[in-house]
What does this fold into?
Amino acid sequence: MKGVIASIAPEAEVLDLSHEVSRQNVVEGALLLADSARFFPSGSIFVCVVDPGVGSKRRCLAMESGGRIFLGPDNGLLHPVAGAGLVRVVELTNAAYRLPDVSPTFHGRDIFAPAAAHLWNGVPLSDLGPAAVSTAPLEIPAPRVSGRRMDALVLFADRFGNLVTNASLGILGAAQWTVEIKGKRIGRVRRTYSDVPEGRMLALIGSSGRLEISVRGGSALERLHLRRPCGFPVRLFSR
Amino acid sequence: MKGVIASIAPEAEVLDLSHEVSRQNVVEGALLLADSARFFPSGSIFVCVVDPGVGSKRRCLAMESGGRIFLGPDNGLLHPVAGAGLVRVVELTNAAYRLPDVSPTFHGRDIFAPAAAHLWNGVPLSDLGPAAVSTAPLEIPAPRVSGRRMDALVLFADRFGNLVTNASLGILGAAQWTVEIKGKRIGRVRRTYSDVPEGRMLALIGSSGRLEISVRGGSALERLHLRRPCGFPVRLFSR
Amino acid sequence: MKGVIASIAPEAEVLDLSHEVSRQNVVEGALLLADSARFFPSGSIFVCVVDPGVGSKRRCLAMESGGRIFLGPDNGLLHPVAGAGLVRVVELTNAAYRLPDVSPTFHGRDIFAPAAAHLWNGVPLSDLGPAAVSTAPLEIPAPRVSGRRMDALVLFADRFGNLVTNASLGILGAAQWTVEIKGKRIGRVRRTYSDVPEGRMLALIGSSGRLEISVRGGSALERLHLRRPCGFPVRLFSR
It folds into this structure.
């Protein structure tokens, strides 16, 4: 992908945002993108490839939103960045801005990278293909609240072994919550890791604004022996 | 290595092609390089270090081939890119283009990176050392074909857990093959992941033109519990 | 972090030194930095984040040393580069050079990256905050020597599975040492991997000048089944 970009737009500067999204975890990729995009300069072009449906009928999109451009498969990955600032969406069908041979397993290289490079060269978004109206939703289950109890779940584990959940600040609100995972009470929501002793498990609001389960100086993923963290239940109780 | 390049050729742009080749897997590195090089601009300089023999008598080479320059150890890593377009090969012996102190365990930093930076600065290839004639072959075992059966094997697992085999498109030809691995029939060769249901194992031709064993939405490496994928047998039967 | 730098200093070139330091292993990060910094051009700005104490009272520092600038938490990470060439240290307290909202869990993005970008833009180090006098020491245990025996230990495993120890060239001196780990004699200190047959365990002085335990063509970490290499004992005997 970097070679393709360098061939079409030799002056373009390429930054690696992340190559560490868990295999085919569209939710993790979408949230990473949504959390990171606003820190990049206006005009940035994002090539986003978490693409389990590559080669199927799923569409390849490019969208302008919030002063930035995002390219990726229509599988929910771009959904969080297609918010209030959405200007337009196109489907990447114009063969002039793809590689001559498009493989059925690597659209990152053959469709998304060349489209991004041509955009960087000044090709207008509307030249890449016809306007597209809607995009696939991102399937993030909402926590279930019943009385003083909330049933949340783990969305993914980050590279430090922190377990990122679907309980966002907006959902938690101003209430005081106590957190439980795998039958283990880990106390109230803390501000930062050093609010507990070394080696202790804790819950806090991560830099993305979501409840995370962590171990100070360690890995919650390893501590809890979770092989498949995605979907693991987390319970919260308010006072 | 990046610091060395930035010190000698401050304007050179460095792209990371991959840091994920399995430890000391020369075949994986060589195939990655062969598959990727043509997507990079003419004139690109490739620093290629998969180098289990570092510090031994194996030579350090630079070669011009297909309008690009490749530097690396003479262990087969550069063999696939030294094809029809090969112009010249030199051995990197000129001390003027190495770091002053060459460690016996990190020639990437001390020999290959400085040579690449000097090439970028305009030093001619022939100044880096004497012409060298031949290079080590790359030992990729060919599949054995007997009648309607082909015995192939896994060369490496990629970062998604796909098992890349030694059965290339050229060997498979036009025949219809049925694939078996670890005693499990996984059907005919498919076009892309979504040709089978979620979670199903399949065989397809990967973006590099070789037969791969995959799991849709998963990892064949994990599904088959392969600790050492390299060399694992794969059987094919034609109708 | 890259987005923040690109937003403040669009022309700054960012190189990734490493994203592979073991989780929260300050010693590993500090030694990597100390080993690598001298290979980078004079004037380079290093953003160093191995930061288990993020959000606590630990200070955020920037220091000029040896013609380069280093930013990082005051937890020992910068200690080895604050050697003979140290010119000045400041604490990063000036809110004008932080992001408007500083999260308690990601100072890399909110404090260190913006400070580095402003330095690149020409802001003087002294504008970032008040002079700071001392920094936290780096807690690297020294090997214990008694007679002809030395008790060393593993500091970390690198990405190849080599076990890097606290026995540096300066401590080993000119004596001939025989090395033992997990009850296994692995012979004298070698010069490079190919001094032993394929698959054999060996001890050598790595590119950083420290004794390392390796397997030729393999991984010492895997061979010895070490789940937590940090602190594992290594014994040396001199003749």
About this structure: The mean pLDDT of chain B is 94. Residues 131 and 167 of chain B are 35 Å apart (CA to CA).
